[in-house]
Design goal:
alpha/beta; six-stranded parallel β-sheet; single chain; Elongation Factor Tu (Ef-tu), domain 3; 17 strands; six-stranded antiparallel β-sheet
Length: about 375
């Protein structure tokens, strides 16, 4: 069998990776960009940074934190910033995340733009509220075989303020073969009313730098830094029926939203929460939400199990989470009622849910989601 058609692309890929690394190394050694000034929002704030580093990390050194769910790996596309200065053509890593309108406005991914000369930037004022916080781990407990609940107490005297549904970037220190600090984004699962501690629901990703550290090395009493609050997944004011759909650790922002609503007395609108899990063993917070359902007359909790085995005693909904959602839309939720949707989970699940919602005439502008892989 001729393996040339398999080997050739592999060799090209390896050569490309090596060349890219050499170019970055040469750029670092040969090009000394010295000190560079970043002028923000027409000079309202000016900072001096060492040239040569990505804009994202250069701003972070001065406690200006842009959202970055992937920690600067150019896989999330959220660290966008308007750059008025010329920083060269768009990189291939930026283009998948840019609309034509954004390109016309010179919106760039800050993690991909190297600071090589003085720059003029525009940054939304609300991003200056994002801060770095020092915390101490107060507890870590198993919720399912691969999901842990992480609780952190703030060490800073400043209490945190965030909107239910937003996320934080946990800063993972070097460990083992991981030689650098790593940042990863996780939705806050606790209610904003608790301003001195934060709770997270974190699923183990095989081989994941952050989740491996959290699941296997982190323990109560350890220190952990984070950056927060981030994200635009939060409750919009409305009297419309509210449809919430989540799977696995997508529970986190929905839990925060629901308990924040209940605490604030936002309880007149009908709320339907469809929560999907692979097996009965993957369900969690069921008693907590069933108890909320008893206290909140217009809240309806519908947990769903995809697969059943012979030992399961599960009596609830089974199949994909989209099935009961469609059943409720077809027969139990009044068609004439306006609707809002809040979704959190994998891209595939969210895309499938959006398809159903739009088929039942839910306006796309009333569908809010937080995708993660």
């Amino acid at each position: 069998m001729n393996l040339d058609f398999l080997i050739a692309p592999l060799v090209v890929g390896i050569i490309g990776t090596v060349l890219a690394g050499l170019i970055s190394l040469i750029d670092l050694i040969v090009n000394n960009y010295g000190e560079v000034k970043l002028s923000i929002n027409d000079g309202k704030k000016v900072v001096t940074v060492k040239g040569g580093a990505p804009l994202l990390s250069s701003l972070a050194e001065h406690d200006i934190f842009l959202p970055s769910a992937c920690g600067g790996r150019a896989t999330c596309g959220v660290c966008k910033v308007k750059i008025k200065s010329d920083v060269g053509p768009y990189l291939p890593t930026e283009l998948p995340f840019m609309t034509q309108g954004e390109k016309q406005k010179n919106i760039r991914l800050s993690c991909q733009v190297k600071v090589k000369a003085n720059l003029e930037l525009e940054i939304p004022e609300d991003l200056f509220a994002i801060q770095k916080y020092s915390t101490t781990v107060t507890s870590i407990k198993d919720l399912t075989p691969d999901i842990k609940e992480l609780k952190l107490a703030l060490k800073d005297p400043n209490q945190i303020s965030f909107k239910a549904g937003q996320y934080a970037q946990l800063i993972i220190p070097p460990y083992g073969k991981i030689k650098q600090f790593t940042q990863r984004a996780y939705s806050i699962s606790s209610s904003p009313s608790d301003r001195t501690s934060l709770e997270f629901v974190i699923r183990l990703v095989p081989g994941g730098i952050a989740t491996t550290y959290i699941h296997t090395l982190l323990k109560a009493g350890d220190d952990l830094e984070l950056i927060a609050p981030l994200g635009d997944f939060y409750l919009r004011e409305s009297e419309a029926d509210m449809l919430c759909v989540a799977g696995g650790s997508g529970m986190a922002p929905i839990k925060s939203l629901l308990f924040d609503m209940y605490e604030k007395g936002i309880t007149k609108r009908d709320v339907y929460y469809f929560f999907g899990a692979g097996t009965a063993a993957d369900l969690f917070y069921i008693d907590l939400l069933k108890d909320l359902e008893k206290k909140w007359r217009t809240f309806h909790f519908i947990p769903v199990v995809t697969q059943m085995d012979s030992n399961d005693k599960w009596k609830g909904e089974t199949g994909l989470v989209t099935k009961p959602l469609e059943d409720f839309l077809a027969a139990k939720i009044p068609k004439q009622n306006p609707k809002q949707a809040y979704l959190c989970g994998s891209p595939g699940m969210i895309d499938a849910v959006i398809k159903i919602l739009t088929a039942y005439e839910v306006n796309k502008d009333d569908i809010f989601y937080d995708k993660f892989s």
